[in-house]
Model the fold of this input.
Amino acid sequence: MATAQATDKNPGELKDVPGWFPPLDQLLFTWFLERQETRGFGGDLVELGAYMGKSAILLGHHLQDGEQFTVCDLFGGEAPDGANAAETAKSYSSLTRQTFERNYLAFHDALPRVIEAPTSVISKEVEADTCRFVHIDASHLYEHVHDDIGAARDLLLPDGIVVLDDFRSEHTPGVSVATWEAVLNRGLRPICLSTQKLYGTWGDPEPVQEELLEMLRGRDDCGLSVQHAAGHRLVRTRAHKGMQPPSFPHSRYYTAPEPPQPAAQATAPTSAPARPRPRPRSRVRRIGADLLPPIVTRALRRSLARGAQKS
Done:
């Protein structure tokens, strides 16, 4: 995973915020959240691990009246153990709470509730059975992800959605083990898998899967397949090349690009009208009906002059 670089420039659009949040996952976040909202399904939002705010900014856009959005991240603070400290130093050395807050406030009038601490504190900070959506994107270490999944189960309402990031990346085997362990042994039921994230619930996944399949089948910018494993239906989706994210409001710093200027017309320089070319003087003179070169004419004149003198 390449490290996204922080920038001091205020973002004008969501794509300007550093981070890993592909268009397909922006589409899925938006679809799950709007589905909850249109059905009157209320509840708080939680994000464990926020980096520089890209996904948090989208989540905050879906905050309904009476709901609370809580973000928990170390933000460069002291890690709970040596392995987590090494992970933070390697991948998140440029992360600061100030950067997160600046990016978030570019799109929103107020910050979410920010907890600068290890994600292990979240169960003490947020009441159980109060959340409709939890995004887990913090440590990649098995022990931490295992505990974050347990906390999400406690926080979520029945049929609430949990999203697990990096569940299949080759550099995050701890996330993979913790995720599939939760599916096989801890009651987590997958709804769908993107290239980067697993979307699941501890409720009944079938109704939301059917609606999701209908939505995905109506799109031509992503692939879709359905597989079955260990008693679970796994809806897999993948973005096609060139897929665009759903529309999202611009930030307060957005400046519309200037319209392209028409290409300059090439014009020939103005010049005076061409003067008529003078006719070259003939080097042949007419004597009588004959045409003779000038040298012959001069010789003839001298001869005639000498004859006149003799006479």
About this structure: The radius of gyration is 39 Å. The CA atoms of residues 14 and 248 lie 7 Å apart. The longest helix spans residues 294-310.
